[in-house]
């Protein structure tokens, strides 16, 4: 005859098993032992399984936090706007966080985010019909395209460039899909004008600056790219015409963001306030609160230059 535990002990073990299983069904097959042995052994097995599940959940959470943030950014943002905030972000936290930065033009940045190859993008806003309504945009900062003039060029001596001179002078320009070029061309088109055939089309801001200095000719660039003294350029505007543009954080879904990406977004939206204060209205302020800050680790940054096959 097999002797089992008394009824009160069995009831206590059922209560214990229920607490450990949290209402879930766990099937355990026991053989070769009496019910008394099983009655004492099963709660221990259940406790072990529950502990293993807790460890697995903890490891999953840590893996999610430590996964690299897949960030795509336009050339202007990657070179002239993001380095400072990323360094600040590193200094605010104690744990390690990786940032995988892919640099491409704004059109490609949007495609990377939409296709899931980047969870966050920083790109120029697109007010045309080609703007992807499936992507969410959080206003980041204001910018303006200017004429970067080598100091040895005649335009460096004038305060503003005449519109007629701008449209009749061959210059260095970015590739056709770059926001820098599109903003200027669309603004001129609204006036019934167009740029002169370019001397060269280049794929990045750094290459455009190098070509302009080498050839001693003007180049159309972001104002952010020519605000530092000592690079051999002066920034000039066109008389009676401006080429403003805006940059935004691009994301496909807030729900799919990792904790690290959420914290980075929160940090970027808080800085630099003086440069983007005019853009901070309704939706972006609400987004700040929705994406609230979380403690995340420091980062290392792996940079790649992006190209998209068509």
Describe this structure in words.
The longest helix is centred in the N-terminal third of the chain and has 32 residues, at 35-66. The protein has 310 residues and is an alpha/beta fold. It folds into 2 domains: 7-66, no CATH class; 69-305, D-Maltodextrin-Binding Protein, domain 2, CATH 3.40.190. The strands form 2 sheets. Strands 1, 2, 3, 4, 5, 8, 9, 10 and 11 form a 9-stranded mixed sheet that branches. The relative contact order is 0.18. The protein has 11 helices and 11 strands.
Short account of what is shown:
The chain has 310 residues and is of the alpha/beta class. The protein is built from 11 helices and 11 strands.
Q: Write down the overall mean pLDDT.
A: 76
What ranges have pLDDT less than 50 throughout 5 or more consecutive residues? 273-303, 306-310
Give the SSE string. HHEHHEHEEEHEHEHEEEHHHE
Alpha-carbon Rg, integer:
29 Å
CATH class of the largest domain: Alpha Beta
Architecture (CATH level 2) name of the largest domain: 3-Layer(aba) Sandwich
What is the count of structural domains?
Answer: 2
Keywords:
11 helices, disordered C terminus, alpha/beta, LysR substrate-binding domain-containing protein, 41% helix, 9-stranded mixed beta sheet
Topology:
Blueprint: H1 7-21, H2 35-66, E1 69-73, H3 75-81, H4 83-91, E2 96-103, H5 106-114, E3 120-124, E4 136-150, E5 160-161, H6 163-168, E6 172-174, H7 179-190, E7 200-202, H8 205-215, E8 219-222, E9 233-238, E10 244-251, H9 259-270, H10 273-276, H11 282-290, E11 298-305
Parallel strand pairs: 1-2, 1-3, 2-11, 5-9, 6-7
Antiparallel strand pairs: 3-10, 4-8, 4-9, 4-10
Helix pairs in contact: 1-2
